[in-house]
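Quarterly update from the structural biology core.
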Amino acid sequence: MGSGDLGNQIVSLAEEINSHQMVGYYDDFQDKNTFVKGLPILGNSKDIILDFQERKFDELIIAIGYKHMQQRASFFESLINKIPFAKLIHPSCVIAPSSTIGKGVVAFQASSIGINVQIGNNVLLYDGSTICHDSKIGSHSMISPRVVISGFCTVGERVNLGVGSILIDNIEICDDTKSGGGTLFVENVTNPGLYIGSPAKYLKA
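Predicted structure, tokenized:
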């Protein structure tokens, strides 16, 4: 679901690891039967359930990016009990056997998931992101490249952590938080919004 930049990246990942055959996109802003990067637009979001029932595809991935976090979550939650969601995990990722990974998760190159980590549904982990032991990532969140989440941290739902953000150990980040690149969290975040700087400071809603 989504044929923009993120959708193209996910298709490229699937082709690289040869784990799934991508058959096309669903997109509410593209015309049906047009093509994006060689794959057809199969329809819009209203076509998904019927097409699944007609076996036009087997699994779905949400490719809605960080500018539309609520829509990313809403689409997933509206379909989770009706359609299977695929997982795409690059083989270079390091994943502890004791970790748990939800449905619809995408993990790009060299992501690291430590022991007892819990990853919710519909989470995206970009290249080189590190989730250390006993931490939790809430559903529908997006973790940018080179983010480091130390041990015993809890990240809420629909959180978007910018490139190179760092959480020291035992930090809690509330739902709907965003961070700019290189943000350092040394205290809990209880007020949703955009945070920047080192240490992190609230900028705006």
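The helical segments are 5-17, 48-53, 69-79.
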